[in-house]
Each structure stands twice: as structure tokens, then as C-alpha cells.
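Task 17 of the worksheet. Students: predict the tertiary structure of the chain below and write it out as C-alpha cells. Keep your answer in the requested format; marks are given for formatting as well as content.
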Amino acid sequence: MSDKPNSFEQLDFNDSSTLEADSVVRPKNRELVGVAAKVISFVAILMSLFHLYTAMFGVFDSIMQRAMHLGFALILVFAVYKPSKSISKDAPIPWYDWIFMVLSIICYSYFVVNSQEIASRMSYIEDLTNYEIALGIMGGLLLIEATRRVVGNVLVVIIVIFLAYGLWGHHIPGALGHREFTLMWVIDHLFYTTTGVFSTPLGVSATFIFLFILFGKFLEVSGAGQFFINLSVAGMGKYRGGPAKTAIFASSILGTISGSAVANTVTTGAFTIPLMKKTGYRKHFAAAIESVASTGGQIVPPIMGASAFIIAAYLGVPYMEVAVAAIVPALLYYISLFIQVDLRARRNGLDGLKKEQLPKFWEVFKKGFLFFIPLILIIYMLTTGASPMKAGLFAIVGTIIVAALSSVHRIGLKKLINALDLGAKAALETAIACAAAGLIIGVIGLTGIGLKFSSIIIDISGGVLLLALIFTMITSIILGMGLPTVAAYIVQVPLTIPALVEMGVSPIAAHLFVFYFATLSAITPPVALAAFAAAGISGSEPMRTGLIAMRLGLAAYIVPYMFVYGKNLLLIGGPFETLLAVITAIIGIIGIAMAAEGWMLRHSYWYERLVLFAGSICMVIPDIYTDFVGVAILVLVYFYQKKFRQDLLVRQEAS
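Model answer:
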């Protein structure tokens, strides 16, 4: 592991190797520095400038805005992503990918140029021309191929199944069958309305999400990532288990901006994992801590990896309402992780970093405190009613101004252009996933399978909410294993969420429940991508790392059930009831962390852990009587362990 940094001075966020540690593969072949590389960067910069323009002067009509966004994305995908993993990342762009780029321009330019006519036509009544049908088919095939390269085969298989169902599902007998739809009708619904490819998810990607991804890249090139990591080291490094606590704080801050658990893991993990190993954490545990901390960034307000914008769009509520509701669940997630890290450090006698290894807090703070201004600006603008697009735009401008005022982190023209380039390429996964999910959403809406699926969930669960939640949890995790979090969430919006709402779950709790478990798939074996990425850095065995990560994130698997049954944890309800619910939930989560780690005041035997866990569950159940029972159990375990420890000390002194 000699190639990994082992002190805070060795990680340079202005270095291109760090900037490229993202979910997007950036071409590194020096041969492409010529015409091809310049064309790719030019298109990426144009894409970023287009979104900045619409943020400043207003978006175009729905189909035009979304078609432009998707057209840019497809061109870049075929330029950046290789058609096969066996092809070197440094290989030149194949000739057929140039053809795909041209076809993408032809196809989606038609939707841009004719957006008003498409919006005003009478769908399903006015027949499409053969040319329009051909464009729809070509647009779909290009999108599916781009999905295969960017997202993976899992989503492609799901898309093909749904498209086949839309075309031939009328042959299925019984409740799952539907009326017959011609090819023209399916193409019309998917491409010539805003209920398919150009539906809400792509609309949110084409407006809010892109700007916040671009904002994240401006923060990166300005050196803000290095500042937040150094500040975390300076603030937490000296304490027991300091490097692990540094990982928690740094990953939560950077993760809420990046929105990618894997990207966040490899970026901050390249620094934090070697530090944790150096101070005594085993490699499996160090990798697991980083993966859990990085995954949780997606549920941390105010940005939540930009996914909160999609949730707000589906709910039809202000963005800040989603961000506020997510505060307590995110807090519980990180409290549990922090407690487990601290207990492991106490158990193993792990001290923090030595003084000479640490940067001085105030020196670090003085050099980069201005980077808090863009984040504060986002929160202020969103709480005062500004649109997320304006908030993202002003945050970008604020970052440029802050960097200009800094003598250490100035953004020159080269860095500014680099940020525009990187921002567009970083947005490709989200753009393609949202558009591809639109194919599925379109078929669900056309055939009515969503309502049928919801009825199936209710029937299977027998009307018991807990069973329906468990079924939904499993579905979310399985989908999340093969899809980006955004796509896994979007696919379920018309399928499982209506069933939960029909069974009495509040809409915001239902949406957050699905979103949280889609997020947790990154640390859930057998396909725990964030844990596997961290294992690659630490040199640990991937599956073992994933299992430890799942244990460290145990509270995260419980929290969604807590806010479904107790809406006060989403800050909904009276102040007294909400405060009581939050306090008891925190105590319960701490107890769960102690049970998972097997340590309270000393090592906990298996029966003590079971009692601890039972008492903690009583605390997290939203009921005053169970709270009393939970408190009694936890107090009993505390005094039992205290007496046991005192007796042990007396015996040791006597001997």
C-alpha cells in the first residue's frame, strides 16, 4: 500500500489523479490530446454552459430542455465510455462510436427543434409518421446501449422486460395482462409525451441535479475537498480512534455533494483508510468504516447527493421540506457509526494521531473557512424560497468568488474550464439512469401495471404494514445492487410506494423509506459496491469487508422503520412529541451500536448483547410505554456491567 497517502499533506485535491477518482471514467490516453480529446472536452463544456445559461435566464419547454440534456449526455457517453471492459480506457474512440454520436445528434436534435409541435400534438390520436417512429426506435436503442455502458446490464435487462411487457403483455392471461398496444402507440407514449423518457426524473436531472454536480466539481478544483478533509483531521485526529472519526466527518460532508457512494469512498478512502490502519484498525474494519461513512453522505441534508430534488419533484413539495425531514434519520445513522467506532477504539486501546502528525486546526480553518460560504448560501436560498436552480447557480458563483479571494485556492481560467469539463462528465450516470428509468416508468403508466403491483404487495402482505415494508426493503436493496441509487428509487416510485401510501404511510416517509434502502445497497452483500471499493484500497477481502460494513450500518437498516411508524422523526408533529421521539431514538440507536459492537462499559457477553438490543428496540418504538421498558433494560445492563467491572478491579488488586 505504499502508493497510498499516509498523512494529510500527501493528498492533493488539485491533482488530476484525485479529481478523476469518480464514478465517471475520464479518458487518459495521451493520443486523444489531439482533435478527439478537444472535441470531447468542447462538448462537455458546451453541456455545462447550456445548463448555466438556462439557470440564469430560465429553462426551455420540457421536451426541448430534456432532449438537449440527454443529447449531450449520449454524445459524451459514446465518447468517454468504452463499449467493452476488455477495451483499454486509453484506446482511441472506435469508428462505430463516432456513428453513434452522429445518430444521437440527429435523433435528439429532432426533439429539440420540434419540441413545440410535439407538445401541442394530440398524442395517441394523431398518428406518428414512419420517420418519427424510426426516430423513437433509434433513440431508444441508443439510450439502451448507453445504459449498458454507464449503468450496467441489470438495468438493461429490466428495461427489455418492461418493453416486452408493453408490446406483448396482452397475451398474458389474468390480472397481469393488459390491452393490446401497437408499436406506434408505445413509441408515442415513450418519446412524444412527457410520461416516458422525457418524464420527471430526466427533467430534474436536466435542471437541479446537473447544477449541483457541477457545483461539486467547482468545489473539487478549488481545493475545498482537501480543506474539508484537513479540517476533519485537525478537529478529530487527536481523539481516540481519530482517523476513523475523521473518515466519518469528511465522508459525510463530501458525500452529500458527490451523491456517489463509490466515488466518495475512493476519494476520501485513499487518505483515511491508510491512516486508520496506521493507528491500529484492522484493514477490514478500516475499509468498512469508510464505506459506511461514504454511503451515508447520500442521505445527509442539505444536498443529499441531489436525490432530494427528485423526491421533492415526485411529492410536489418544496425541496427544503424533504431536506428538513431527512435531518434526524441522517443524524441517527452517523451517531450509530460514530459510537461503534469509538467503542472499537476503546476496546482495542487505539489512540489518536500524534500531535506532530496533525495540522493545526485554526491554521487550516483560516485558509479555507470561506468554503463554508457556498454551502451556507445554498441553505439560505432554499429556506427563503429560491428555486434549487438559482441556489445551485449562486453556489457555483460563490465558489468562484471564494476561490478568487483565497490566496491558496484560486481558480484560474484553466481550472474553471476543467470544472466545466469534469462536471458534465460526472453528470452522465445520473442523466442516463434517469432517462433509462423513463422507459420503465412509461411502460408502467401505459399498461397500469403499477397499480396491479401495488395490489399484489398488499395481498402478499395480508394488509400487514410491517410485511409490506420488509417486502419493499428487499426490493429496494436488490434493485440498488445493480442500479445507481437514483435509478433504483425511481423505478419503485410507481410500483411499491403507492402500496405503502395506501396502507397509511405518509407519502414523504414512503419515499424516504425506499430511497434509504436503495442507498444502503452500497454496503449490503453480496453486491456491496462501496465496501468492495474500500476493500481494494485497504487490501482486505471484499465480502468480509461488506459483512462488517453491514454490521456497522445496522442502525441504518432500522431507522427507516422508525420514521415510518413515528413521523416525529421526520420533524412532523408537535414540538414536545418530536423532541421526546428524537431523544429516545438517539438513546435507542446508541444502545443498538453497543449491542452490535459488543461493548458498553466492558466486553458484553452474548446474553448481554441480546438484552441490550431488546432494550434498544423498545426505545426506538414510538410509544411511551416501550420507552419506559427500554430505559429500564438499558439502565439495568449499565449497572450490571458497572458492578461486574468494579468486582473485577477489586479481584485484580487483591491478587
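Marker's comment: DSSP finds 32 helices and no strands in the chain. Residues 1-29 have pLDDT under 50 and may be disordered.
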